[in-house]
Amino acid sequence: MSPATLLESLGMVLQVQVLLAILGGAVYGLFIGALPGLTATMATALLVPLTFYMAPLPAIALIVSSTAMAITAGDIPGALLRIPGTPASAAYTEESYAMTRRGDAVRALSIGFFFSALGGLIGAGALLVTGPLLARVSLNFSSFEFFWLAVLGLLACALVSGSNPVKGGVSLVLGVLVSTVGLDITTGQPRFTFGSLELMGGVSFIPVMIGMFAFSEILRGLSAKDDTPRPGDGDGDRPADTRSQRPFQGIWGLFRRYPLSVLRGTSLGASLGALPGVGGDLAAWIAYGVSARFSKTPERFGKGHEEGLIEATSANNAGLSSAWIPALVFGIPGDAVTAIAVGVLYMKGVAPGPRLFAENPTMPTAIILCFFVANLLLFPLGYVAIRAARLVLAVPRNVIVPMILICCFLGSFAINNTLFGVAIMLVAGLAGYLMERNGFPIAPVILGLVLGPVLESNFIMSMQIARGDLAGFFDRPVSAVLGVFVIAVIALTILSRIRKALRPGRADRPDTSYIQ
Amino acid sequence: MIHEGMSRGRRALCLAGIALAATAGPALADWPEKAVTVIVPWSAGGGTDATARAVASELEEKFGQPFNVVNRTGGGGLVGHSAIAQAPADGYTLGVITIESTMFQAQGLPGVTPADYTYIGRFNADPIAINIAADAGYDDAEGLIETVRADPGAVAASGANRGGLSHLAWIGLLDKLDIDPAAATWVASDGSAPALQQLASGAIDVVSTSPAEAQSLVDAGEARTVALISSERSALYPDLPTTTEIFGTDWSPLPFRGLAAPKGVPEDIVGKVETALKEITEDPDFQAFMASRGFSVAYQDAATFEATVTSSSEGLAAAMTSAGLAQ
C-alpha cells in the first residue's frame, strides 16, 4: 500500500456522490437494522436494484455502509426488546438486556454503538495494512481447520451459559439437534421432516431467535406477576431509565478501564472474520467467551456487565470489514452480504480477484476506506438513534407489547416469505419460555443452531477427503495445532472439574471459567 | 448522481407504462393489472438471483407493473421449485427454474416434477468446467483422468451436494470414460464457494463448476481451468477445450436458467412473457450485463425449453442410476 494509492483512494471516497451514498446507506441501514427481525442481508438484497443506476464505488459504498449500520443497529432491539438482530448479537443480547432492565438502556446502547464503531475503525485500519496477506492466510484454511474452529466456538457455550454449564450444554445440544432438520447436504436425504416440504428447507435461526428471545419474554410478562422492571414499565411509578444519561456519557472511562478487551475483541474479530463462511458469526461468541475467561470479575457476566459487551461488540464490527477480504482477493464470498456485493462488483465491471489489487489497487483501498467513513458515521447516527430509543422505553407496556408481537410476526414471516417461519417462531417462543422457567439458558440454542451445520458439513467434508481416517484431522499443520489446542482445553476443563470434586471445600466458588 | 439515476429509472418505467397503456388494446390490457411475483429458488446474491433480478427489472419496464423477486430457498432448491409449481395459475406468480428441477424426482424427493410447470423460455445456459489446483502434478485434463484411473478414490472432487449437478457432471464424465463413478471420492459441499476454498487450501483436487466462478482463483494463480464438460465450446471462453474434443465422450450436462409458471397458466399470458423474454435477451444492455458476470445469453422459446428440460431430465436420471444415486 503506497501513500500515493492511499491518497488517490481517499480522493475517490471524498466525492459528493460517494459520501451521499454512504450517508444514505447508513440511514437506511439504521432503519432496517433497528426493526426487529429484519436482517442486514435483507437490507443489502433490497439495495441491489438501486445499484444498477449507480457508479461502481458509490454502489459498493451504499452496500458497505448499510451493512455496517444495519448490523450495529441490530443491537438496539436486542438491548431494548431482547430481539437480537444477528446470530452474532445473540451472544451478548442477555447482557445488554440485563442492563436495560436495570435502567441502564442508554449505557448499553452507547457501549454498542461506540465500541462497534471503534472496533470497525481499528479493523478497517488493520485491513489497509494486512489485507492481501490476510487473504492469503485465510485461503490455507480447509474444512479440517474449520471443523476445529467450530468446536472451539461450541466450547464458548460453556462461558455464555452462566452459572450452570450442564444446563447450558443441554441447550447447546438442543440447538445442534434442531439444526439437523432438513435435507442432509451429503446425501440429500430428508431428516426429521415428517414429509413436510417446508421442513426440508431446514429450520432457519432467525425465527427461532425471535421466538426464543422476544416471544418468550412476552409470554413471561403475561404469565408472571414478576415485578422486575423491564422496558415499558416507564408508565408506572418508576421511570424505566432512572439514570437518564446522555448518549455516550462515561464511555471514554470504560475504554480506559478495559483497553485490553477492545484490543482482544478487535484482533479476534479481524482475524476470524477473514475466514469465509464461519468467521463473522463465530467472532462475537468467542470474544465474549474469552472476555469471561480473562475477566477479573467473571461472576458478573450475564448480569449486565460491560466488559463482555465491549469485547464482543467490537469483535462483531471488526470482523465485518475483514469478511470482504477473501471476497475481494479471491472472489470467495463468506456470507450472503459479501456474495451480493461480489455480484454488484461484477455487474459494474470490477471483477474481484488478485488482478484487482495488482492492476487497480485504488478500488479495494477505497472500499476499505468506505468502511472507515461508515464506522465514523456510527457516532453521530448512534447518538440520534439512542436519543430516539429512549422514546421506545417511554412507551407504555400495553402499547409496546402488541408492537413487539407484530415485529415478531413480521420478522419471522419475512425470512422466507412464508407463514411457516411464523409457526417456527411461535413454537420456539413456547420452548424458550419453558426452558427459561426451568433454568436452561437460551443463547446456547442459537449458537448450536448456527454452528451445527458448520460443524457437520466440515466434519463430513473432511472425512470424505481423508477417506474415513480420523487421523486426517491432524495431518495438516494448522489443523493439528488447532486440534491439539481444542483437546487440551477440553482435557484441562475435565481435569479441573475432577480436582474440584476431590477437594469439595473449594468447590463453592462460582465457576464460570471453562476454558483453562 | 444517485438520485438522478434513480429518477431516470423511474421515468423509464413510467414511460414504458404510458406507452403500454397507449398502444395496448383492451384485450391485452387484462394482464398484468397488478404486481407479479417472481420466485427464485436460490438465495439472494447468487448467480440465479442476479440474473432473475435483471430479467424482472426488464419485464417491469415492458409491462409497467412491478415484478417482485422473492427468494424462497432451502432443500437444495426443492422448496422454491415446489412453491412455483404450487402457486395459483393466474399468471401473477412466475418463477426462475434451474436444472435441479429435473433431478428431484430421480432423487426420490417428493414435491415437484418437470411436468408440473408451464414453460415460458430459457435465458441462460452455461457449461460446467473442470478446475484443478495450480500445483497439481498434472496440468491438463488427460493428466487428471490418468491419475483418477490409477486410483479413483485418491482424487477428491467437489462443487455441490452429493447428487447435485456439479457431482453428476463429474461422475457422468467418469462413467463415460469407464471409470467406476462409485469409487470416485466426492466431497459434498454447500455450493462452489466452499469447494473452491478447499481447492485453494490444497485439501481437494478437482472442483467442477462454471469457469466464471473459478475465474478469480485462476487469476490468482491458485487454480487452473482445464476443460468444459460439454460438447461445444463456450463463446465466453473460446480457448477452453471440451471433454468431447479431448476424450471423444458424448456427455454435455448444461445447467440452465429459465422462466416458468405453474401448470395451467393461460396461453396468452405465456405468449406475452415469452415474447418479452425474447426481446430482453436481444437487448444489448442485458447481454452486456450477462457477459460482465460471465453468464452467456442462451434464449430458447417455450416449446424448445420444454424439450430441453425433458431430455436433460432423462439424461441426468440415467447418470444418477449408473452412479447408484437414483431412488
From TrEMBL, chain A:
Presence of keyword Electron transport: no
The keyword Metal-binding appears for this protein: no
Domain of life: Bacteria
Species whose genome carries this gene: Mangrovicoccus algicola
UniProt keywords, alphabetically: Membrane, Transmembrane, Transmembrane helix
Annotated Basic and acidic residues bias: 224-244
The protein's name in its UniProt record: Tripartite tricarboxylate transporter permease
InterPro entries in UniProt: DUF112_TM (IPR002823)
Signal peptide (residue range): none
Domain (DUF112): residue spans on this chain: 19-447
Location of region: Disordered: 224-245
From TrEMBL, chain B:
Protein's organism: Mangrovicoccus algicola
TM spans (from-to): none
Listed name of the protein: Tripartite tricarboxylate transporter substrate binding protein
InterPro entries: BUG, Bug_dom1
Keywords: Signal
Family under the similarity heading: Belongs to the UPF0065 (bug) family.
Gene3D superfamilies to which the protein is assigned, alphabetical: Bordetella uptake gene, domain 1, Periplasmic binding protein-like II
Coiled-coil residues: none
Pfam families given in the database record: TctC
Signal peptide: 1-29
